[in-house]
Amino acid sequence: MATREREPSRIWWARPGKLCGLERPGGGGRSHRPERREGEIAYLKAKGVRMCISTMASRHNLGAYEEAGLEWHHVPVESAQRSADALEELLPLLRRELRRRGAVAVHGDRHTDFVVAVCAAHLHEARGVEPAEALAQAARAGLTVNGYTCALLGVEPSEMDALMRTPGAGA
Asked: What is the DSSP letter of 3?
């Protein structure tokens, strides 16, 4: 029996059809469900995702990506201190992988603050999108944006908050 597609609860298509950020397929932490994971991986594949980049400290889900025929890359981010290095590692990887056909999904576990920073930094580098605007887009999509995310990109939280209050801004 084929797995039924299920759109992830928290997903942001930073570049529609090319790059998305989301929480761990299947849910993060103790709320993780294998059936949900299968449905969300099926959704990602149907949307053209060919590679999943995991920033989780653990290697959870990597075997499921292999079973589904997806490429994967694991860059564990265990602390805020490691995040700046990981961001510098991921931006060239995204530059290279996004030139190829298909889409790339970047995920953490429950927390999506670092995932948002990665996608927003890519949008700034590749498309000239102001980081605060990208953060506001991610927040509207339901992903976590916090002071840590803002600091990693050099954005004042008040700047992003102002964009969130302005109708149509950061859309």
From this structure: P
Note the helical H segments in the chain: 34-46, 62-67, 80-97, 113-127, 131-140, 147-153, 157-165
| Residue keyed to tokens 């908050």 | 161
Q: Are 123 and 161 in contact (CB under 8 A)?
A: no
Residue 107: phi and psi, rounded to 5, are: -140, 155
61-83, pLDDT tens digit by residue?
999 999 999 999 999 997 666 79
Q: For residue 20, what are the contacts with CB-CB under 8 A and spacing of at least 6?
A: 11, 12, 13, 14, 44, 47, 49, 103, 104, 105, 106, 119
The DSSP secondary structure of 6-22, one letter per residue, reads ---SSEEEEETTTEEEE
Q: Is the pTM of this model over 0.85?
A: yes
DSSP at 155: -
Query: Which tens digit of pLDDT belongs to each residue from 96-118?
Result: 999 999 999 999 887 889 999 99
1 is written with which tokens? 């029996």
Q: Using an 8 Å Cβ cutoff, are 72 and 51 in contact?
A: yes
Distance CA 30, CA 51 (A): 25
Shortest CA distance to 1 belongs to which of 47, 52, 48, 35? 35
- Which residue has tokens 């969130």? 164
Angstrom distance (rounded) from CA 57 to CA 109: 9
d(CA 78, CA 4): 33
